[in-house]
């Protein structure tokens, strides 16, 4: 599971680098103020992010499932696996709430949201 967490960190670093490059290219092409414009960026920029994400999911999910079935009593292992999936669903809801809250607060304070509809 530790290997999976390291891959998660690597994927976040990769997406930060790719998005900064995406932003630079959007500014260079003059699309920084046009929310409908499409930045011409190669699909080759996607695997540096998606590859570590897939590996992290594989290592963490398999590691946790193995842990649940090897360390817990048989009557609890399937419940623990289901609680793991329920926890992921709850985390998605919390992330959505945080994003909405940041969007609302930054619109009120600064006029423009940090979570802009303009991806460029």
Automatic annotation (TrEMBL):
Keywords, A to Z? Membrane, Transmembrane, Transmembrane helix
Quote the InterPro entries the UniProt record gives: MFS_trans_sf, POT_fam
User: rRNA processing: is it a keyword of this entry?
Assistant: no
Q: Name one GO molecular function term.
A: transmembrane transporter activity
**What domain of life is recorded for the organism?**
Eukaryota
One GO CC term on file: membrane
Q: Where in the cell is it found?
A: Membrane
Entry membrane topology = Multi-pass membrane protein
Per the record, the major location class is membrane
* Sequence similarity: Belongs to the major facilitator superfamily. Proton-dependent oligopeptide transporter (POT/PTR) (TC 2.A.17) family.
Protein name, as recorded? Uncharacterized protein
What organism, scientifically named, is this protein from?
A: Rubroshorea leprosula
| Lineage of producing organism | Eukaryota, Viridiplantae, Streptophyta, Embryophyta, Tracheophyta
